[in-house]
Each structure stands twice: as C-alpha cells, then as structure tokens.
Amino acid sequence: MSDLQISLIGIGIAFVGSVYAYNKWQERKHRKLAERVFRTEHDDILLSNTAAAPATSAQPEVEPNNRPEERIEPVIGKPAASTEAAPADEPPGAWVDAGIDCVARFESTEVIGGGYLWQAQQQALAKLTKPVTWVGYNERNRAWELITAHNAGDYHRLRAGLLLADRRGPLSDAELTLFSNGVHHIADEFLAVAEMPARGDMLARAEELDRFCANVDIQIGVNVVAEGGNSFAGTKLRALSEAAGLVLREDGMFHVCDDSDATLYTLSNLEPSLFVVDDMKTLSTQGITFTLDVPCVADGKRAFDRMVQLAEQMASSLGGALVDDNRTPLGGSALDVIRDKIAEIEERMAAKGLPAGGPQALRLFS
To answer: Smallest Cα–Cα separation from 144: which of 209, 183, 198, 89?
Structure first.
C-alpha cells in the first residue's frame, strides 16, 4: 500500500470521526435544551363538564348558520393557568389562546429571525386551511410580539397557534397532522425544540368547541321591502346610507362600524346582486336586508336597537315595510323576542370566556 493511500485512509478516518463527534455534540445540545425548556410539567387544559342550558327555538327572523344543529351543548372551560409561570411566559390570549388554539411551543438557544421564520412557516404550512398565528418574545422589550411578513425581530421563544374551529367546522385529523409535521420541520430548520399538545385532546376539544360555536352562531336579519309593486332606486338608497354614516365596502354591503372600525351591522341587497359603486345609478331592488352577526358584536342589544331604528327610518323614506324573512311585519313583541335571544347568546359566550365581539370570538367566527 502506497504512502498516498495510507494518507487518504487516515484523512477519511479523521473526517468520519469529526462528523460523529459533531453529531453527538448536536444531540447533546438539543437534549439539554429540551430538558431545560420542558423540565416543568405544564397543567393540561381541560374542558369543563358543566351542562349548558339548551338553546331556545329561534324566531323566523333569527338566522342560524349552516352548521348542523346540536341538541346538547358542551361547555368550553377557560384554560387552566399555571401557578409557576410568570405573566410574560405566555403571549396575550388575543393572539394565541390555548382555549381555542392548538399551541405549539418553540424554544431555541440560537436566535431565530422573524423574517426568516415567516418565510419558513409559509412554505411548511402552506396547505393548511385553518389560520395560524405566530408570536415571539422580544427579550429587549420583555414583551410578546405578533409576527408578520414585515416583522424584523429576533427571538428565542416562539408560539404558533392553529385555530381549533371556525365557521367551516372543527380542526380535522389530517390538518392537525399537517400542522404537526410543519412545526417539527421548522424546528429542525432552526435547530429549535418544539412541543406539541396531545393529538387526541386537540381533536376532542376542536369538536366540542365547534359544537358550542354552532349553538351561538346566530345572525339577525331585518328586511325592508317595497310595497305596491314599487322598487327602491339605487341612487336614493346610496344617498340615505351614506347620510347615515354607512360605508360601502368591497364585499358589496354597506357597513356600520364602531370607533375602532369593527362592523356592528351591515346593509345588503335582498336580491342576489351586490351593491357596487358604479352600478348604484342604474340599480333598483325590491328590498334590502340589515344583518347583525351576534357573536361578532359587543353590546349586541344596543347595536340591534340602532339597526332597527335605521331600518325603520329607511322604510319611511323609501316607502317600504319592515318584515322578517317570511314577509311578516316586525312589531314590538317580535323585536323583544330577538333582543332576549341576543342577551342569551351574549351570556353564554361570556360564561365560556369568549365574550361576543372580543378578539377570540372574532377569530372563531371569521
């Protein structure tokens, strides 16, 4: 054997040895990180088993969503708070909430750049249909930050929250698998440690959360219809709407908003066509609909009263009548029933820690 061959063999052995040593060092590093990050047992987040009151039958003008009706309504309990954790240990519930999200926890000894993370999660989680929220802990500011495409922060601690339910239904097993695989892929990419909650718990909680949401997901519709074969002219309709402070948006509806620009209720065409600015001059319609999305509005009774008042004013100005979806005139007693229904829904949502119009409710009912 020549000296060259012996030298090459020696170099090869040295290279293999160095690779082995590096891998063992990385393994030891991650094991220590995992032990440091997850050495404390965290309280499991349990669902309350308190029975909720069954929903009362809705009047014709109360429109439920397309979810299947459930007779027995589960109660979604508030997440159990750890007595060992400081307030800054977890992000604000308005962004990531263990009560409505499947929360993945990331910890890393190396700094993770927000911009790089955003690009990586877009690729790894591209097939998800449920929204994912990312937040990172800024150690300079000692505060959690919402991570977006334009975020430039650096983080050692991250949380990713996958919404357990929305108006399309509960989180599915297939989508949870996509999320879990994506989370671990991202963790590997940034040499971080990721902790996922138990799969069975997440799927069970998603089903129960969806059933609860279905039982409070009510929209109130009030119609103003033309009488005597007449119709409403688009020009007059637009003038009355804008004079009342309504804003026509790209969804083809006029919106009434609060001081924070959150929608209180909408005005739409009773006929299939949408309202479009350029078409309002030639538009005519047999009726209009005012709609209040109860879970998405804080102080729903007050918003409902304002909506009815505006509907009555428009009915008077347009020469129309205030009716429900069955074209039955809406009077005082019928309106009182609707107010009671709104109050009932608000009480049930507040009792579950999901106040109507709050950030968690807006995420669930988007």
So the answer is: 89
Say what the pTM is: 0.74
285 — phi, psi (to 5°)?
-145, 155
CATH topology of domain 86-212: Cell Division Protein Zipa; Chain: A, (3.30.1400)
Q: Where are the domains of the chain?
A: 1-39, 86-212, 217-364
> With contact defined as beta carbons under 8 Å apart, do 74 and 208 qualify?
yes
Token pair 């509960």 is at which residue?
170
Q: Does this chain's domain 86-212 share its CATH topology with 217-364?
A: yes
Q: Using 50, 70 and 90 to split pLDDT, how confident is the model at 366?
A: confident
Cα separation, 275 vs 280, whole angstroms: 7
- Answer whether residue 332 shows pLDDT above 90: no
User: How many whole angstroms separate alpha carbon 329 and alpha carbon 34?
Assistant: 65
Tokens representing residue 138 in the block: 């800024």
What is the arithmetic mean of pLDDT over 249-256?
Answer: 96
